[in-house]
Amino acid sequence: MIKKSLITLSVLLAMTLPANAVEPDEILEDAVLETRARDLSRQVRCVVCQNQDIDSSNAGVARDLRILVRERLTEGDSDPEVLAYLVARYGDYVLFKPPWKPITYALWLAPGVMIIFGGIAVLFVLFSTRRRRNSTENLSDADEAEIAEIIEKSATKKNMVEN
Amino acid sequence: MKRLVFTLPIVIVLVLGGFLLWGLNPGRNPSEIPSVLISQPVPQFQLASIEGVGVPGLSTDDVAQAGEVVVVNVFASWCVPCRAEHAVLTRLVRQDGVRLMGINYKDKPEDARRWLDDLGNPYERIGSDLDGRAGIEWGISGVPETFIVGADGLVLFRYVGPVTGPKAEAKFMQALEQAQAQAIESAAEPAQAMAESSS
Question: For residue B136, is it within any domain?
Answer without folding.
Answer: yes
